[in-house]
UniProtKB/TrEMBL annotation:
The keyword Transmembrane appears for this protein: yes
PANTHER family named in the record: MULTIDRUG EFFLUX PROTEIN YFMO (PTHR43683:SF1)
Location of the Major facilitator superfamily (MFS) profile domain: 33-411
Name of protein: MFS transporter
Taxonomy of the source species: Bacteria, Bacillati, Actinomycetota, Actinomycetes, Micrococcales
GO terms, molecular function: transmembrane transporter activity
Annotated InterPro entries: MFS, MFS_dom, MFS_trans_sf, Tet-R_TetA/multi-R_MdtG-like, YfmO-like
Organism: Brachybacterium ginsengisoli
Principal subcellular localisation of the protein: membrane
Protein location: Cell membrane
């Protein structure tokens, strides 16, 4: 991407953005402030999959239907979607460090309150506050970690992407381990770890990027751009399928295990989604950049969407097979990692809009698709069959392909300047995986 379209609101200084090829030693020789942000980022990404293994336990112990339990994702993602339209403006008003601390404080508060909740309705409301905090933190963490590094930006970015991958993979596993104690324990554990991250950033982060002013309506206005609108519509249908797989799958997976006479439980679910998160992290960081450079962004998107459609059809057919579901969920992680990064890179290349503004607009729209999916999947399964949500997810993925094909004429700029800097590559990976 050319320097003329870089977002001064979120990009570090030119010196920090300079391309470099750091050694592994350089990557881990960072100031304490960088390590503090990396730790908080790890915990923040852990929170994405933390709830997944305990959804059936919450449903059983709080006398809630699966549909009600899955609304924990809906409230979280809906508020995240709305917040994403304004995070770049907010950071430009209060500064990067304050935005990080406010986001972390909100996660600590609402995660701690969730651990004491007495009903699923209370947790649903508290997860909304958690989503606001996570949106504020994740939207500014990369700018902060690059701004705090003492040397070339490449080393800090390697550390940041490592934190991202660890968080995505470990979150479901930690949720499963703590879930064997109580469904409350994962929420309490998140509050404690995020509290440590809050203190570390407050005490250690002094140097920070200076954001430029951004209009509060900039992200909403950005959707008038036809290229961005095309990709946002593609993403909203894609994210519906993504969150059918993530939020709904624990229920048919546990039912399939019960049909075999075994109890899967939080730990078993945590193990499966640990494999899912690890697969997603590996392909988003390592495989997606290779594919997009060899075959191009649009072909990568269309191919991956096609494979995901087939995979969702497979889940619809084999939803009663424990082995079949485990295999397809983990393979789904491989495909989702490629899709997330490739789609966000396409957003970064498709317009001349400032990167932060385009990312806020795109993320806000796509998270709405994720918010709708859990609210629809549960009632649909209850009214029809356990495989129906996957078949609907396959349909929305096919619609995502249609949106991309119809709007392809607006994406002429994609692929004309594909040499992303390390910072831009990391932003694509982060924005792709932050859901």
């Amino acid at each position: 991407m050319t320097s003329s379209v870089r977002d001064t609101a979120t990009s570090p200084s030119p010196a920090a953005s300079a391309s470099s090829v750091p050694t592994l030693r350089q990557a881990f020789q960072q100031p304490r402030a960088v390590w503090a942000i990396a730790f908080a980022a790890t915990v923040s990404f852990m929170g994405i999959g933390l709830v997944d293994p305990i959804l059936p336990a919450i449903s059983t112990q709080l006398d809630a239907s699966p549909s009600q339990a899955m609304l924990l994702f809906t409230s979280y993602l809906f508020v995240t979607a709305i917040a994403m339209f304004f995070t770049s403006w907010f950071a430009s008003k209060v500064g990067v460090k304050r935005t990080l601390l406010i986001g972390l404080a909100l996660v600590v508060l609402f995660a701690a309150l969730a651990s004491t909740a007495g009903s699923v309705g209370e947790i649903i409301g508290l997860r909304a506050g958690w989503g606001l905090g996570n949106a504020l933190f994740i939207s500014t963490a990369l700018a902060a970690i690059v701004g705090a590094t003492a040397g070339p930006s490449g080393g800090a970015i390697i550390l940041y992407e490592t934190a991202l991958g660890i968080g995505l993979a470990v979150g479901p596993l930690l949720g499963g381990l703590l879930g064997t104690i109580s469904w409350r324990a994962p929420f309490a554990g998140t509050a404690v770890l995020m509290g440590i991250g809050f203190l570390a950033i407050m005490l250690l982060l002094q140097k920070e990027a200076t954001p430029a002013r951004v209009s509060p309506l900039a992200a909403l206005r950005a959707l008038s751009n036809p290229a961005l609108r095309t990709l946002a519509l593609t993403a909203i249908f894609y994210n519906f399928g993504f969150f059918v797989l993530l939020a709904y799958s624990p229920f048919p997976l546990e039912a399939a295990a019960a049909a075999r006479g075994t109890e899967f439980g939080a730990l078993g679910l945590g193990g499966v989604f640990f494999g899912w998160g690890l697969a997603l992290a590996i392909t988003s960081v390592f495989l997606a950049p290779v594919l997009t450079r060899r075959i191009g962004l649009i072909p990568t998107l269309l191919t991956t969407l096609g494979l995901l459609t087939v995979l969702m059809l497979g889940l619809g057919l084999f939803h009663s097979s424990m082995a079949g579901m485990i295999t397809l969920i983990i393979v789904g992680g491989l495909l989702l990692g490629v899709m997330n990064t490739a789609l966000t890179e396409t957003v970064m290349e498709a317009t001349d809009l400032p990167r932060g503004v385009a990312s806020s607009a795109y993320s806000g729209v796509r998270f709405l698709g994720g918010a709708v999916a859990p609210a629809v999947a549960g009632p649909l399964a209850a009214a029809t069959t356990s495989g129906a949500p996957y078949l609907l997810g396959a349909g929305t993925l096919a619609l995502a392909m249609v949106m991309l094909i119809i709007g392809r004429r607006h994406l002429g700029a994609v692929g004309t300047h594909h040499d992303l800097t390390e910072v831009e590559e990391a932003e694509a990976i982060t924005a792709g995986d932050e859901a």
